[in-house]
């Protein structure tokens, strides 16, 4: 065999375009362009090929690197990203999201092939512009947002509408907004399958459920319930008819919501297979109510992780200065360790500290 042919065939430039695409897919655009762009015309052609797709995360870039990237690299490949993350966890370093959206005025609508978008610590004022731009990104599958708590107070709202959730391919959404998130502007059905929310009120969550027929997994922090009478009338016997029958995994952190109202919600979700709850009210120690729920409504439930955390001394929610008279937590723990619970494979344990107690009932808990 001619040795010159072997040597010639081993050169990097002889690889097919597809091989280069596979190799370059594992490198960041920043490294790619610094290392390969300008070496020869073949590599330049591959890096600018419309078939070449990119993934990048700008969160670790220094301010100098970030400025160079946005000015020199991003304009060449913006329409070929499939995954893009920007924003910094440490906002004391520099406001990357603000620079991206305002100083450089990068239009998110240019990311036409984007499938995954992650924005870290945006400001609450930037969200409407971002939400509007997302409606143009028809290939989005995953969205993850977080809002910087700076400037967010108890009166702050983030209003979600159809622009964010109605993407034809959108499946997974995670929103940590540091402010009350509302969904009353959602009026069209979404294809979202996995949803995580921090935080919203009970009636807003149930409104959203009615427009999420594909939802299988939901994680949410819920605080408060306004207009109880109207909410009760709208949910009882109705939610399961409009809500996704696919919702089989539910994870909730509950604050300032009465036990009976939570029961109304759970009774409508009889298809649940996995339930995780973090609760902070003495009412939830009522083992009989839980047992009735699992016997009559959540009969398909396999996995349970129920945590009730109470601060000492225990006081009434209606009369803060009035001490409660009810069975102490260790008595409740005994009631959660009876035959019914054992047959389900669930066990209860009690952890007691100087200022609080925590009762846990789950598949993993060991009996005290």
TrEMBL record:
Return the InterPro entries for the record.
LRR_dom_sf (IPR032675)
Q: Which domain of life is it from?
A: Eukaryota
Q: Which Gene3D superfamilies match?
A: Ribonuclease Inhibitor (3.80.10.10)
- The entry's protein name is F-box domain-containing protein
**Source species, please?**
Adineta ricciae
What does UniProt list as this organism's lineage? Eukaryota, Metazoa, Spiralia, Gnathifera, Rotifera
């Amino acid at each position: 065999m001619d040795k010159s042919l072997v040597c010639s065939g081993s050169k990097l430039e002889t690889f097919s375009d597809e091989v280069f695409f596979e190799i370059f897919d594992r490198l960041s655009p920043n490294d790619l362009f610094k290392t390969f762009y300008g070496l020869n015309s073949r590599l330049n052609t591959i890096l600018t090929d419309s078939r070449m797709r990119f993934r990048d995360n700008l969160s670790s870039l220094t301010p100098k690197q970030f400025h160079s990237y946005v000015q020199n690299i991003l304009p060449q490949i913006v329409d070929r990203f499939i995954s893009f993350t920007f924003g910094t966890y440490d906002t004391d370093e520099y406001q990357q999201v603000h620079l991206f959206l305002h100083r450089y005025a990068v239009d998110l609508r240019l990311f036409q092939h984007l499938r995954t978008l992650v924005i870290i610590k945006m400001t609450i004022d930037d969200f409407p512009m971002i939400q509007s731009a997302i409606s143009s990104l028809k290939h989005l599958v995953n969205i993850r947002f977080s809002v910087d708590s700076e400037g967010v107070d108890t009166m702050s709202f983030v209003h979600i509408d159809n622009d964010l959730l109605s993407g034809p391919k959108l499946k997974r959404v995670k929103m940590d907004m540091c402010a009350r998130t509302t969904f009353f502007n959602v009026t069209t059905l979404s294809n979202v399958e996995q949803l995580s929310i921090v935080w919203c009120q009970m009636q807003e969550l149930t409104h959203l459920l009615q427009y999420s027929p594909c939802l299988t997994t939901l994680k949410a922090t819920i605080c408060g319930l306004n207009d109880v009478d109207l909410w009760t009338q709208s949910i009882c016997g109705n939610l399961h008819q409009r809500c996704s029958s696919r919702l089989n995994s539910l994870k909730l952190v509950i604050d300032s919501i009465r036990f009976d109202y939570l029961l109304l919600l759970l009774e409508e979700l009889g298809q649940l297979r996995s339930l995780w709850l973090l609760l902070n009210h003495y009412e939830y120690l009522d083992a009989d109510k839980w047992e009735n729920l699992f016997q009559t409504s959540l009969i398909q439930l396999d996995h349970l992780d129920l945590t009730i955390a109470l601060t000492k001394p225990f006081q009434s929610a209606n009369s803060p200065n009035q001490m409660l008279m009810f069975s102490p937590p260790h008595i409740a723990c005994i009631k959660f360790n009876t035959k019914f619970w054992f047959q389900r494979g669930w066990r209860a344990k009690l952890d007691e500290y100087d200022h609080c107690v925590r009762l846990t009932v789950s598949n993993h808990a060991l009996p005290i």
